[in-house]
């Protein structure tokens, strides 16, 4: 009888170890599914904040992707912080788009239609922002009056990785 008890105990111990190892493996390997893909590398950009027309009050934001990876525009949001200038902040979402309206931004009302040159965020492009291309949007004077010397901060966020890939402080001309 003693030999049968030892064999049963060994079988039960092996079963417990296998179940524990399986449980640990599931939790360990299952957690790797939540790791997001790395953000694209945008090595260099230039930004400017210029008047739309001579004597006009609207400001055009131009962000030029100079060097780095191609980026799917649909993976980007643009956060504009104009709290120092007019106390407002907004986030452009659902890019690319052909117009900036209440359905394409979150936060305060800051934006107007695109400037005539459209840019990489425009729905009429191929949806990829490449080095050498410029993305533009307009800040409406009626929503946020920017005087010469006022600053805004523009952040481009890669949404799948939740990483800021561009951060630029721009000064109104």
From TrEMBL:
Residue stretches making up the Archaeal Type IV pilin N-terminal domain = 3-83
Q: Which UniProt keywords apply?
A: Cell projection, Cilium, Flagellum
Instruction: Give the matching Pfam families.
Output: Pilin_N
Please give the name of this protein. Answer: Flagellin-like protein
- Upper lineage: Archaea, Methanobacteriati, Methanobacteriota, Stenosarchaea group, Halobacteria
């Amino acid at each position: 009888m003693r030999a049968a008890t030892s064999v049963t105990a060994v079988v039960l111990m092996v079963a417990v170890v296998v179940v524990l190892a399986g449980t640990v493996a599931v939790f360990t390997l299952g957690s790797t599914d939540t790791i997001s893909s790395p953000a694209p590398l945008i090595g260099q950009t230039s930004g400017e904040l210029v008047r739309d027309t001579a004597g006009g009050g609207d400001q055009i934001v131009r962000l030029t992707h100079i060097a780095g990876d191609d980026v799917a525009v649909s993976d980007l949001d643009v956060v504009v912080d104009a709290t120092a200038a007019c106390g407002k902040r907004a986030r452009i979402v659902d890019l690319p788009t052909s117009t900036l309206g209440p359905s394409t931004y979150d936060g305060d009302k800051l934006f107007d239609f695109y400037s005539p040159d459209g840019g990489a965020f425009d729905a009429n492009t191929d949806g990829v922002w490449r080095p050498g291309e410029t993305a533009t949007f307009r800040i409406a004077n009626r929503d946020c009056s920017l005087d010469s010397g006022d600053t805004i901060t523009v952040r481009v966020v890669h949404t799948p990785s939740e990483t800021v890939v561009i951060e630029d402080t721009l000064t109104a001309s």
